[in-house]
Amino acid sequence: MSHARHVDCSIGSDVRKLRPLFAFGPLLPVLAMTHASAKAPPDSELVRRELLERLVERERPSHLVPVPLLGPPAAPSRTPSVLDCVSATYDITLAPSTGVTDAKLELTVRAVGKALPAINVAFDRGLQAGKVTATDHAATVDDAVYDATRVVRIGLDPPLAAGDETMITMPYAGTVACATGKSTAVACSTGTSFSFFASQSIFPFIFDPDVPADSTFDGLTRRIVLRVPAESDVVVTGQKVSETINQGQKVSTWSIDKSLSRTTGVYALVGKLGQKVVDGRSPTATFVFPPPEQEIDRDLTLWSETALDFVEKTSGRALPFDRGLSLVRLPKSYGDPGTATFGMTLLSDSYSRMGPILYEETWAHENAHLFWGIVVPETNAKESRLMTEGMATLTELEYTYARHFSDRDHDAYLARRFVPIMLDVRAHAEVPPIQVGPEAELTDDFRGPTYMLWAYYQTAATLDHLRVTLGDDVFTDVIADYRDQCSYVGCSPDALRDLATKRSGKDMAPFFARWITARERPRVALGFTPAGDGADVELTQDDDRPLTLELWIELEDGSREKRRVDFVGRTAKTHLEVPGGVRSISASPRHDALVDVRSSVEGDLDFDGETDGFDILRCAQHDSETYTSRGATGLWNVDEPFDPRCDLDGNGVIDDADFGALTAQFGKLRPR
Amino acid sequence: MRLRSLALVLLVGCGSDPPKGRPAPHAKGTEQPDASTDPPPTVRLRWNGDLEHAVIDVVARDVSAIHGTAFRLTWDPAKVALGDVTAGTEWSPQAIRVAKEGLPGELVVVWTERGVGGGLNASTEAVLGSIAVTLKTSEPATIAFRPERSTLRNMKDEAITVEWRGTTIP
Questions:
Q1: Cβ atoms within 10 A of the Cβ of A608, count?
Q2: CA closest to B160 among chain A residues
Q3: pLDDT tens digits, one per residue of A343-352
Q4: Cα gap A201→A212, rounded to integer Å
Q5: Which residue of A238, A490, A540, B28 pairs with A379 in a disulfide if CB–CB is 3.0 to 4.6 A?
Q6: What Å distances lie between residue A16 and A300, A659, B113, CA to CA?
Q7: What ipTM is given for this predicted complex?
Q8: What b/e sequence results for A294-322 when a residue is b if at least 16 CB atoms lie within 10 Å of its CB, and e otherwise?
Q9: How far is CA A338 from the centre of its chain?
Q10: Closest chain B C-alpha to A177 CA, distance in angstroms
Q11: What distance separates the 2 farthest-apart alpha carbons in chain B?
Q12: How many other CB atoms sit within 10 Å of the CB of residue A660?
């Protein structure tokens, strides 16, 4: 019997029901789920596209115009820009049903390190800039239309000297075109109900024409004044400061009073909006949707309560949006996958086709970004996504455990979720290390599965491996320290390394050298000898760098002890005292993603130091199973039965060769 | 491994007057009535043969849907020698059948189907396999399971709770 396993992308599949837990060995119980309806084709283009577009900072190059139309060609690099945005005020009068816009941007910028000769702003091509002024500088304006966007280059004469600031005032007006252009997503949609205006529509996107693809964190505060017809509902990114109605016009003021990356989106939803208050939240969280209300809106509202509570619990602090949160369901027709921004989460309802459990999990992921990405940004999005996408992905996995699988073994659940995730990563040698050095160039074609594997998969697995290495308590403290140190300022993985070293009292540089700045999966051999009050454990590895493993000691009475052990050297020995006879000693399966731990006895899959029928039974029911990596789809798989330990030759198939290898080692027993 | 075969007698349930020397073997297929009612699922060793061809059957009883088993037998190698190990005929041709005397006096065996499905039905009784034995002395000799290293698995790969019953040769 042979069946290729792949992501379940069933249209309308319902994964609420669980099959009973399958226990196939002491280390890795399997979670099983039923899928009630037919499966969509696994290579569905729509699904693939959606899977690839889960971004928190709207990294959509086709939309964010890394095209220096009005400046010299710039090679893709991570050279930081000299542009430092300080603050922006948008005063926008908008007719949402027609898109007629009359606006003004007041932008304060500073030059860092070198003179700043110009800035670019991009907005809907239906709008045009008026007379631009800059404090203490003459401003020159050139513009061109690229795709759905108008790019305006504002030259400063003289250039803004390093360390100096100027306030640029740019009026802009017209009727938004809301063209799709080359992107599959819209930046705006007019109408009387749920009209939608994102970055680069009525909210200009600001960038440095000399370094258009700059990804270094540059945060600014914002104030948004939006003037719409009095009968319109209005929800905007930020915290609502005031709302008044005067002479048929509703004027609302929104504040982003913390440093928010200039590449992070700003959104306005205007018109007739569906709104539901999320229970149990203070300050208020409001779920916003295009009317009429659907069943999924009731689900998302319910999920919001648990998701937000969970995000706060795991982040260790309440969300700092003390005037409220806006949580938005985007219709799939917009082609926008969603994102998180200041006090706002948005997610396309196209994710509903993943089934309710994964849709809810994705909702949790995006809400996790309210912390990990918005409150706590990273220094450079092209250097690392460890503490943004990595944390959000780890949070979503934990959320699904808490919501749906809390009666299962937690370690086994996580280890099982990471099997397809890391098989996908290992199938792609081109995935760079988590922290990309300055010499690496992430070109524009670093998209698609490679990006997912780099930004989401490898990071989440490594964070969990770090957590097992440090222990839950220390890890929690490290995350809290990182959150406190890095809120609104941007940090790199170096900061995490230093904080982990400080909290743990151990030098974490070797860990980061293996798994953050490199892509290693060291092979280690683990063996033990029973010794009176416990066991003598020996670990062998290919180098002498320190390695910490959480060891699982299964006792003869069926109980389990866990010990975190530091190993130093190519061969390291330690004695473990335990209250009973030792049956087996293995490493936590949560290390498997990043460490290839094997018994020192070949063929001993259950780590008891012997090869017998238990090793073969572990694999017997997995005969003919395969794992075929299909890009980056492992995250969408909560039911992967493939056991890599049974695939002894690593060819992705559990077959005769693997059973032959096992039986060839059969019957090696420990001397009595 | 071919060894001389000698007669064996199951200690349990031997009700006839023992002759001088070694008790007479039970005839094939017979068993003594059990005093208890509704016996729990068991895997037992049962002699099946005669003085010339002594074979121990590994018999499962009151267990349905057996997907696989792994077990160990121990004995005193000074008194007993084990010979050929043969899986029962009810296993499918694809089943894994492996046995090895891993240490003197300790046999390791695994009989299991591969993949999902298949297996044996021992709702009443099923012979999982057989082991040829040779007695080296006239002293009592015990062949026992190591329950902590033995397991019976169902179609869901769950361990089935069974009583492992060895045998003592008087």
A1: 23
A2: A23
A3: 999 999 999 9
A4: 18
A5: A490
A6: 15, 35, 31
A7: 0.80
A8: eeebeebbebbebbbebbeebbeeebebe
A9: 12
A10: 58
A11: 52
A12: 12
